[in-house]
Design a protein that fits this description.
Number of domains: 2
Keywords: Lyase
GO molecular function, one term: lyase activity
Organism: Ramlibacter albus
CATH superfamily of the largest domain: 2-enoyl-CoA Hydratase, Chain A, domain 1
CATH topology of the largest domain: 2-enoyl-CoA Hydratase, Chain A, domain 1
Number of strands: 10
Family: Belongs to the enoyl-CoA hydratase/isomerase family.
GO biological process, one term: fatty acid beta-oxidation
Number of helices: 11
Shape: globular
Largest sheet: 6 strands, mixed
CATH architecture of the largest domain: Alpha-Beta Complex
Length: 259
C-alpha cells in the first residue's frame, strides 16, 4: 500500500496525487519510488488511457526535492527514469496532465514540464531556484524549459531562479490554461475528458510522432518516419482504425476499444 502517493481511477482516467502536504508535497526517495511505481502501473494498464498528476491540498503541486530530508543525512538514491520516475521517462505514449494547484518549484516544476499539458490554478507559482541553494535543475528542467519557451525566456528564469506566477507562465507558453484557485484538478479532468473522446491509439500515435519527430534530422525525415513508429503501426492495425470512419459514416459516436 502506498504511503506517499494516492492513485484513483475514474473510468479510463488515472489520477495520481502526491500526498505529502505537510512538506508542500516535496519528494524524498521513498515518495519518488511510489510515484514511479504508480506511473509504471498506469503505463502497463490497457484500460487506463489518460492520467493526471497533482498534489494534495491547495498550497502545492510539489516543492520539488525534499532538501530537509537530504540535509538530514538520510540515504538518497536516484531512479533510472528520473526524478519521481518521470523526468527521464521517455517511453510513455499515453497523455499525462499536470494539475498545478499551488507552487511547483525546482524538481516540482521539472515534473510538471515532463507532463504533456499543464493546467494551473491562479495561485500557482513556478521556479527553478536551484542555483540559490548551490544546485542546478539537471533533472530535465533546464532542457525542457528551453525547448518549450525558447532560450532567452528560459534563461530569464534559470539564471535568476525567480518566481513566475500562473498568468506569466501562460504568456511564456509552458502552461496551457489558468483557472481559479481550487479548480486545477477539475479543469484537468475536463481536458482529460476531451482527450478521452478521441481514439486512445490515435492519441498515442500523435504524441509519439511529435516527441520522436523532434529527434529526427529534418522535418522531411520526421514526416516520412512518423508513419513507421510503433504507435502509428498499432493504430493502423487496430479495430479502432475501422471504428472511427464507420462511426462517422453512421453519424454516431465511436466506441473506442483501444485495440
Amino acid at each position: 500500500m502506498s504511503e506517499f502517493i494516492i492513485v484513483a481511477r475514474e473510468g479510463a482516467l488515472t489520477i495520481v496525487t502526491i500526498n505529502r502536504p505537510e512538506v508542500m508535497n516535496a519528494m524524498h526517495p521513498p515518495a519518488q519510488d511510489e510515484l514511479s511505481a504508480a506511473l509504471d502501473a498506469f503505463a502497463a494498464d490497457d484500460s487506463q488511457w489518460v492520467a493526471i498528476l497533482t498534489g494534495a491540498g491547495d498550497r502545492a503541486f510539489s516543492a520539488g526535492n525534499d532538501l530537509k530530508y537530504q540535509a538530514s543525512g538520510a540515504r538518497m538514491w536516484r531512479l533510472d527514469k528520473g526524478f519521481g520516475g518521470l523526468t527521464s521517462r521517455f517511453d510513455l505514449d499515453k497523455p499525462l496532465i499536470a494539475a498545478v494547484n499551488g507552487i511547483a518549484m525546482g524538481a516540482g516544476l521539472e515534473m510538471a514540464l515532463a507532463c504533456d499539458l499543464i493546467i494551473a490554478s491562479e495561485n500557482a507559482k513556478f521556479a527553478l531556484p536551484e542555483p540559490k541553494v548551490g544546485l542546478a535543475a539537471l533533472a530535465g528542467g533546464i532542457q525542457r524549459l528551453g525547448r518549450q519557451i525558447g532560450a532567452k525566456r528560459a534563461m530569464g528564469m534559470i539564471l535568476t531562479g525567480r518566481h513566475v506566477d500562473a498568468r506569466e507562465a501562460l504568456s511564456l507558453g509552458f502552461v496551457n490554461e489558468v483557472v481559479p484557485a481550487g479548480e486545477a484538478l477539475a479543469a484537468a479532468k475536463r481536458r482529460a475528458a476531451q482527450i478521452l473522446e478521441c481514439s486512445p491509439l490515435s492519441i498515442r500515435a500523435s504524441k509519439q510522432a511529435m516527441m520522436r519527430g523532434f529527434d529526427e534530422p529534418s522535418l522531411a525525415d520526421a514526416i516520412r518516419n512518423g508513419r513507421e513508429y510503433p504507435a502509428s503501426r498499432a493504430m493502423y492495425e487496430s479495430q479502432d482504425y475501422i471504428e472511427g470512419p464507420k462511426a462517422f459514416a453512421e453519424k454516431r459516436k465511436p466506441k473506442w476499444l483501444g485495440r
